[in-house]
């Protein structure tokens, strides 16, 4: 069975990823700000480390965490409050990702990063086309909403700086609007945003369960990983579409 490190494990998607991984029999270590959250959810099989990657652990400690895992799932997101959006850490996802990737870079074995991102982030390297209104809107969001800029820069860091690294393999998963519930595997994964399904303005949605399920499958490696590593897949649920 695999060993996973999950960041953002107490979040709405992260907790589903933890549940899915433990259901599949894997060992999970979660870095959490408050141990009570997962305990209250009955996720007792998880080893919890209290703190944050950015503030609580040295580079050596992160290296140890990463070397103990086959894959790191990052489901971090800014708390949607004024301070969560506009106060530090304004680059929560990017800076955490950098610390994890650099810990992997210093290790001896190949590891996987599965990053939860957003379809509001366009992968320019693949020539992805967004409708004009969506490009204007996501451009505005980049300059006004730090969590969106964080997601953009985290994806660009993987694409442009980590690239096809020998030790640090990655996949950047880009869901659209997220829903709770809908705990089924009725989802499809494609390489690029489908402009007809929209982005910020589109009606297409995905459930957090489906994102967590796909992220768990990626983290396990195998064919799913070989199909999507070094890529930025978009996940859609046909049943939750227009
Ligand atoms: N909402 C959408 O429709 C949507 C759509 C596409 C993509 N996304 C992206 O998906 C990601 C996750 O979404 P979600 O709804 O599952 O998120 P969520 O429920 O808000 O969970 C966020 C997680 O990040 C942690 N966190 C927040 N601030 C932190 C900090 N300063 N230091 C350490 N940990 C921190 C939270 O910990 P605590 O429990 O301790 O607060 C929690 O575990 C986000 O990056 C978001 O941009 C969202």
TrEMBL record:
InterPro entries: NAD(P)-bd_dom, NAD(P)-bd_dom_sf. Gene3D superfamilies: NAD(P)-binding Rossmann-like Domain. It comes from the Eukaryota. Residues 8-217 form the NAD(P)-binding domain. Pfam families: NAD_binding_10. This is NAD(P)-bd_dom domain-containing protein. The lineage of its organism: Eukaryota, Viridiplantae, Chlorophyta, Chloropicophyceae, Chloropicales.
